[in-house]
Structures are given as C-alpha cells and as structure tokens.
C-alpha cells in the first residue's frame, strides 16, 4: 500500500468530515497555546523579529483546526512586536498535509479566516501569505534554511508506512498485549526511523534558532502495549473481528491489516531528538484529555472522530460497502467501554530549538568558532533560562488549572506545571469563528484535562 | 457578485472539466516555450543562478497545463546550469489560482509529475518544492523580493470584477459593436486598473532583474469591438438571447450580466507596463491559434472549452438547470460559424524585467548610486542585447515554423520572428505524460498557428 496516496482525513464539511469531527484535535491545540506562546517569545527574544517570518503547520488537515495553531503563533508574534514597538513582519504561512488532503475546503475557508484575522489583529498586522504544501513531512518540503517556526499537532503518530512485520499480528490491528515481541519492536523501529527522518528534513529547512512545537498522540507508560494508547485500536479490532465472524470481512484481509500508527512515550521522543542531534529540547510536556471531550454524546463523537481519521485506510483494505456497519458496531463497543471506565488520549508535547550545528558535527569537527559556540551554549542552557521564565509566566495561570503529579519516567524528576487551554471556545471555532484574546479569556476552563512537564 | 468566490475553471478530471478541455491553453503554453527559454536564459546570464530559485505560475488551474510552463522553466534553468557546470539550485514553485480552483486535483497529479520530472532531469536536479497559493493575483500573494520568475498564461484577460457600467449593455455580454461607448471605456479602464495593480504587486514581490512572461488572450486590432476578440462572446450572447425568447432565462437577468473579461491589444499592454514603471519590456509578441486547435471536432471542443471556463459565472447568474440547454445551443451556433469562416484566438505575449527602481522613483529621487544606475541601464538596454541573442537562437527554429508579416500597430516596426511549439504533444500531456526534449523534438509542428514579434 502506498500510504501517501491512501491516508487522508475525511474531507469536506459534512457530518462525517474531519472538519466536523475534530473536537479532540481542537482541544489539544488550545491546550498547547501557552507552550506555543512561550516558544514564539523565545524565538523573538534571542534575535530581533525577522522581517519575513516563515511558519509551517505540518499535517494541517482541513476545517477550523487548520488555522488555529497558526493564529496562535501570529498573535504571539504580534503581541511581542507591539510591545517592542516594531513594525509587523511579513508572514509566510505554509499549510502542509498529504496530497489526498482536502485542500479545496481548506482554501475556501481561508478568506473568512483572513477577514477574522484582520479584525482581531488590525490593519497594521502583516501582510500574511498562505500557501498549501502537499506532501509527506517525512520528506523535504521547503527550501533550505527558510523556516522560523514549525508546528504539528496529532500527526507524528502516523508512520510513513506499516512496519515490515516478520510475524502475523493475529487478532490485532495495532500493538496489543497479545502481539509478538517482533511486532512491537518493528513498530518502535519504524517510529524511530520516521521521526529521525522528520527531524533531519526540518533541520535542513529551519534557520538556526528556529523553534518547533510538536504534539504527538502518545502514551505515558514505558510499556508500548499499555492500554492507555492501544485501547482505541483494540476496540476497533474487536469490531472488525465481529465483522469477520459475520462473514462481512475475510479473515485473511484482517490478518494482513495493521494501522501505520505509533504512540511514543516522552522518553522515546526525547531519545530520538537527542540521537538525531540537530535540535536541543527546550521543554517536554505531557497532557491527557478524555475521549469524551465534552462529556456529552461521547461514544458518538469519538466514533465519528476515529472514522473521519481512519476510514480512508479501512475502506482501502475492506471496501467502502462495510464501513457503515463497521462503525455502527464500533459505536456500540465504545459506548459500552466509556460507560464502565475513564478513557483518555495522552499527548507528548516537545518544544525544540534548531542548533547551530548537529551535536555529531560538533564532535566531528572538534572546533567551534565563537559564534557557533555561543549558539550551542545558548541552546543547551535554554532549559535553565526557560524554567525561570516559565515560573514567572505561571503566576497568571495557577488558579485556573489543575495537574497530575505522577512520575512518568524514573529518570526524570517531574515538576509541577499547568497549562490553560488557549483558544477556549472550540464550538465557536467549529462554527468558523476565531476568538479574540479577550473573548478567549472569558471562556471557562475545559474539563477532563491534565498536564505535566518533564525536566529534561 | 464577489468574483473571487465565483469564478473558477471547471474542476475534476471528468469529460466537462477544464483538465480535459484545455487544448487551446496547452497549445498556447507550448508555443510560448522559446520565449520562456529566452527569458530564463537572460535571467541566469545577467547574474549567477540563485541558490534558491522561486518560480510562480499565476492562474495555473488544474490538469496537465498546470505543470507545463513550470516544467519548461525548470528545464531551461537546468540546461543552463549544466552548460555552466553549476550545481542545481533548489526550486520553490508556487502554483496560484483563485480559492475556488480545484487544488485537490492539482495536488493529486503532483506525485506523477514529480516522478516524470525526476526521470527527465535526473537525480542531480533540484530539490524542487511545490506549493499551492490560493488568491487573486490582483492582490499581493508572496513575500517581498522573493520571486525570480513569474509566468501566467491566458489569465490576465479576466478582470477583477465586471466594470461599473453607466449604461445597460443591451443584448450583449461583452464589448460589441452595438455597445455604448461608455461601456467600452469602462471595460478598458477596468483592464488598466487591474493590470496596473497586478504589476504593482509583482513589483513588490520580485527580485531586481527577475523576469516575467505573460500571455494574455487579446486582439491584434486597435478596435476593442473587433470581431477577432469579441466573436466568441457574441455567439454565447446569441445563445443566451435564444434562451430568453424560449422563456428559459429572464431578460432582466441577461441585461444585468456581463463577462469580467477584456482582450487587450499589444499597444494597450505596452502602455500599462510603461505607465506603471516597475518593469522594462524585453519583448512584445503576438500569436494566433485557430479555435479549432486540431482541425477535428472543432465546434464540440471549443464549446466544451468555453463551458469549462465560463460555466461557474453563467450558472451563478442563470442557474445550473439551464446550462446543458445553453451549451447545446451554443454548440450549434459555433458549428455553424466555423463551417463558414476562419476563427482564431489572438494572444499578446509580453516579457518584462523587474527594474531596480520604478521609473517614477528615478525621476523623484533624481540620484542613482552606481549599482542602481548599472541595473537600470541593463534593464533598458535589455532589448538590444536580446535582439542579437534572439537572432542566434532562431537558427535552430527557422525551418519548423511560419509567420505572419502584417503590421499590428502603425507605430511599431514589425520584424520577422518564429516560434516553435515547445512541448509538442498535447495529447500526451492530456494523458498526464510529460515529454522529454528529445521526444518533443520528434513531434510534428502544430497546425493553425502564426506568431509575430513587435519591436518595442
């Protein structure tokens, strides 16, 4: 299967589209807003604001979420430049997704978004130029040394391909407790390979000192078979198995099928970034959000969400004809599950800075001139600066939020950290409205979320 | 009517799509190939080839034509860099059209095009990054001073809006001999205003010395009511009038309707470029191509072509329900017309170079430093250099082509010039194949075309 030509979120704006079923994605981007603001603040503090500022959102899909992160980034830049009394930079915004993405819907929503942006940010903001970039982010997508800020949310858990498996992953469509060890290992290796390729490509495309905020659907446990990440696919696998027993799907087709998906732990993300060596880690956060985002119609919403995300793959393997029945059965299973237990998605959020040289290159050449040395130092000491800055920033937020204080990794000392949910009104965003900061601040806190930050 | 949200070529790849009905556009781009090659050659000769070369195709639509001009530009750059023994630049390609364009089809065709490009140009070519840019080219679309080469074919005859008319253009949908003088004047003024805005925007976006090749569906005569440009719309107006007499369309709706289209003469194009002042004209060419491009199924093909181009506007005014009947009547009228007379589209092709300063700025500041002075000189003397270069380049082409030697403008001395049709096999391009130079050279010359070049 040529994944690049098959995988895409469900296009359009209909009831089953991703645009209408991206509440979780919306909430996660909103929750990440303070992290994005902090990264923008650091980008603009260590250097003057570039005259031409290039931002890329990788895996933007279509619908209201596609512009949400970009809006947050631009607002953060605009706040800083106003505080400093600078002229607005020109913005180049790259919206990337696979060629099968519904760019038509994305582009048709753009004029309305631009109008809203003008109203909120004023006429002295920008100009701002939007482009769509079709292609896999595991390959080069942009000119060398042009990007200042890269964002990606809930995309990097998608692998470039289903891993090459030596054994059949019988009865499963993803890693499960009953998966052979070779399957689990193949999945992990594919993630390492893909995420490394991603970092290598971005390393070539980003300017020195550029920032990247990546939110990945992951897990908190070290155990890749942990229910916290595998459960959603296990339930789909149950629905598929029911379809096999009803003779609606061939067993052979199910045996062949595995989801090209991997939910990494914070430690696994950290390891790949460090091994690749082009970026220093500024922050490593984790957060969780209930499957039932709004504690209302949960089973129905989560089923539609997974359908809008995975139907292209499933229909390619099992045919379009059985999709309605499959997702009806899935809905029943999900409803039963969430009535009995608390179910959550777990996100790993990593903020990185492009180093002057890859750590391997530093070791190889053995010399650094003054400028490079200064940059490498500033990258590696970034965390320390950031901690003190972050503590200051926290003062405004503490009352609004709550945290979990469990320790995610025995080697990492967890310190308390809280995140507000930035854009606030997801329903407004789904109506195609983009809230101003004032309006967003009035919104109540979202339920069902917790956040923690790792020391790194 | 908000034109930007209504006008678009018919999307998809079906029988009625623009992708399947763009033979004229295809032929015109092919004919322009030597002009594009020459402009690329001048761009790369006066300076070293930039490490990052940014190309924009404005009004790309979708289908095979969307990549044809860009391919020609990249091939021309690659030829020069190979001759000079340079490394390939990185290419950034911007494919622009209105937000209603079918970018999904465009992007889904991209992987196949990239494969073909790799085969033809080799692995040491590029890398080459493609982006889609939704928006009107009468506004800013790109960052300041980033574009090296701009191409647009058969788009600039579309105005940004229907001109504000003081009188009803009774019985017509475009300029006609029976149009009131105020209507003709309003159309001309709208063209001047729009084309000026286009040049101002590109002037901000292009680097000094950047080249632009613009092919506009125009006319040869000084008379804007000349049949050579108005005929195709007069026949559509006849079909619409028939629909009114059959009670299928309200007369009032027809009276209100005018096409936002203007076919300029070479002299009018020249005048706007000179008045705007940011660009110097290197060449001003004209060519003509039969309505019946392949002298086969002419009426059917031209009707489908115009339908794929104008249906979005017509359906918006008269409703989708009457479109089939309207175009059936139009087909009958076209068939009758081309059986009795030779009917041709006329193109104006202008090649310009971005000057160091706008001529008005030179006059205003009254001083030029050495560098600026050198650049302005080189721009204004570009034509002289180009003529001698072009005569050399002609040697390979003379045997293949033919010319018309009529004088288009009493003030312009016409010299003989011939153009080959570049990519050659439009049918292959319509199958989604992209010919190599060797293959293209084997193709027979296209029938029904003539070309002339104006001294300027």
UniProtKB/TrEMBL annotation, chains A, B:
Record keywords, A-Z: Magnesium, Metal-binding, Methyltransferase, Transferase
Composition-biased stretches (Polar residues): 447-456
Residue ranges, annotated region (Disordered): 421-456
GO BP, sorted A to Z: methylation
InterPro entries in alphabetical order: MeTrfase_7 (IPR005299), MeTrfase_capping (IPR042086), SAM-dependent_MTases_sf (IPR029063)
GO molecular-function terms, A-Z: metal ion binding; methyltransferase activity
Family from the record: Belongs to the methyltransferase superfamily. Type-7 methyltransferase family.
Protein name: Salicylate carboxymethyltransferase-like
